[in-house]
Amino acid sequence: MTADVATAPDPASPDFNPDLLDRMTGAKGNAADIEAKCQALLLALAPVFAAAFGKATGVEIDARPGAIRQGRRRALLAELSPDTAFCDATIAGWSGDISSLCGTNLIIGLVECLLGGSDPHRLSVAARPLSGIELDMSLVVFEQLNDSLRTLVSADPKAKASVAKPQLELPEAVDDPVPDFHAAAVTLDLEFGAIFAPLTLIVPQAVLLKTKISARAQGKKSNPNAEDWTERLSDRVSQSQISLQAAVALAPLPLGDISRLQPGDLLAFADTGDIAVTLSANGKPLYTCALGRAGARYMVKVERQAGPDENWKTDFA
User: Fold this and answer.
1) How many helices (H) and strands (E) does the chain have?
2) What is the structure's pLDDT at 221?
C-alpha cells in the first residue's frame, strides 16, 4: 500500500503559482485574515495617534479608521503617493520596512496654524509640493505615527522607533533598498479644522500576521524630553536663507513713452534727494532703506520698518 506524500511546489514548473509559495512560507496572508488584522490595528491606532499628536504639538486633530488595501509594496506606494510626503521608518524587533505617507495639505495647514496663528476652521489649503520648512514639519507627524504604532505592536515597551528624513518623491524601483513584498496599507482619515487628509502606513503582511495588537498606551505619559515643535519651526524659519529684493521708485511716464523705450534710454528716480529703497522678501515689504555706495558696490542702509506686523516671519513658511 503506497501513501501519498505532499511535496513543495516546483518553481520551475509552468503551473507554479508564486503567490501559493508565499502563502505557504508566511510572506502573504489570506485576504480575510489581513483585513481583520488591519481593522484591529486601525481601531487601536486612531485614538493613540490623536492623543500623542496633541501632546507633542498642542494641536487637536481627529483620527478615524479609513481604507485598507492589500498588494505588493511598490504598487501600493504608487497608488497612494500623489500629493503626499513619504517617510521610511523602523521599529526595533518588529519591522525595519515600514513606509508612511501623509497628505501635503495637512502639513501646509499645520505650519500655517503653528507659526501664524491661523484659525484651523478657516483654512483653505490645496495640496501641493511642500517647501523645505513644511517638509521638516512633516517629521512630527511621522514620528508620532511611528511611536504610536510601536506602543501597539511591539512586545518590548522600550523598543526603539525611528524615522528617516521625509521625502517628496518615492525612490525609483531600481534604487529602492526595500524589497517589493506583499504588504498591507492602512489609512487614518485625519481631520484638522477644515482640512481632511489621509495618513497611511504600509507594512509587510508577514509581520502583520505574527503581530498581536495591544490596546495599551492610550493613557501613556507624554515624553518630558519631547521638543516644542512651535519653537523648533520658529528656529527653522529664522535660519532659512531668504532672497531679498530692493525696489526703487522711478519717475512716472505716460504709457505711450513706456511702450517706446529702447536699450540705452535713461530713466530718472522719483526722489530728487536721498533715494528711498523698499527692501522686500517673498513679495512682502520689510524695511525702508537709503541707497548708498561702498567702494565699487551699491549698498542699502536699513532705516525703518516698511509696515509689516511683528509676526512677519511667519509669511516665509
Assistant:
1) 8, 10
2) 47
Report the C-alpha gap between 140 and 258 in whole angstroms. Answer: 52
Confidence of residue 237 (pLDDT cuts 50, 70, 90): low
pLDDT digits (tens, 9 = 90+) for 188-218: 999 999 999 999 999 999 999 999 887 654 4
Structural domains of the chain ordered from first start = 18-238 (3.40.1550.10), 241-316 (2.30.330.10)
- Quote the pTM value: 0.69
Question: Which is nearest to 100 in space by CA: 89, 116, 113, 115?
Answer: 89
In 10 A of CB 293, how many CB atoms?
A: 8
Residue pair 114/311 in contact (Cβ under 8 Å)? The answer is no
The torsion of the CA quartet 202, 147, 176, 137, rounded to 10 degrees, works out to 110
Closest CA to 61 of 128, 129, 148, 132: 148
- Identify the residue whose cell numbers are 496633541: 54
Q: Report the distance separating Cα 83 and Cα 107, nearest Å.
A: 11
pLDDT at 5 over 50: no
Q: Please list the residues that pair with 172 across neighbouring strands.
A: none
Q: Tell me the C-alpha to C-alpha distance, in Å, between residue 17 and each of 22, 151, 204.
A: 9, 37, 20
If 0-12 CB within 10 Å is exposed, 13-18 middle and 19+ buried, where does residue 224 land? exposed
- Which ranges constitute the DSSP H helices of 199-277? 205-209, 229-239, 255-259
* CB distance 44 to 152 below 8 Å: yes
